[in-house]
Amino acid sequence: MDHSNYIKETCAHVFKANPDAINIVQRLLGGMSNFTYVIEVEGTKYTFRIPGKKAEKFVDRNTEAYHLELIDPLNLNNETVYTNVETGVKIAKYIEGTPMHELSPFDYLEASAKVLKTLHESGLKSQHDYAPFERLAFYESHLERFDFTHDAKYVELKELWLKYRPFLEQFEKTLAHGDSQVSNFVKTEDGSLRLMDWEFTGNNDPYYDIACFGNNNFDHAIALLPIYLDKVPTYIDYKRLYLWRVYQCLQWHNVALYKDRIGLSEDLKVPFDKVADMYLTKAEGLLAKLK
Fold first, then answer.
1. Does 126 lie in the same domain as 76?
2. Residues 87-139: pLDDT tens digits?
3. Which residues lie across from 156 on neighbouring strands?
4. Same domain assignment for residues 251 and 224
């Protein structure tokens, strides 16, 4: 899909520049939902995000814009210069660096813990809770238009997880990133870490973000937990971590199923039906360890 004309026309309006002066440097790979490009305008580099098909089903752009402003004083994100809540387009200053998924996350546990603690201990509170229990039901509802019925395995796993709801709801919420997987951390040229993509931010259990860190490899989350806590985790700590990771697997299972149903498997050449199965298998394995 060629977004060149759209990017140039939008940037010409935002920066009051000639479209021919907008240089599209490259498309950033790694995300499965959005199209993100590095562009250059008058010698300055920016990122230009175009949301993927039906992204509005999962992200409220007004809420995202609110959170970008809320967390700005923490200096964890790159500077946003333009947002459009109708289209979801976002332009931000580009930070030279390397995404952590291209490095070894085990080498950056202390730095990652520091970033997350800066957020969690900031004292900032959102007008919006992440509301995971309600959110899961909302994501499930998107599949109803396809006359879709979840299989018995998903229903069983979700019911097992829901039994832990009183346990999970007892913990105090802080402002949380909501998608702090390693691909959203960037090691900058000065050696510091930045945290990108605040689409799923809201008040939540801070352990949720630690669980997110294990999206591709849960061992990353297990290794991060004692560094974040600065102590040996208890059984309760690990239980909390595992249960939030189970939730995330159930959540992204639904998102992947929806993407497959709207044709994104073919459009993006990503087998989202297989991705959905993978998340369900992960959830099953994690729950089995809690028995």
1. no
2. 999 999 999 999 999 999 999 999 999 999 999 999 999 999 999 999 999 99
3. none
4. yes
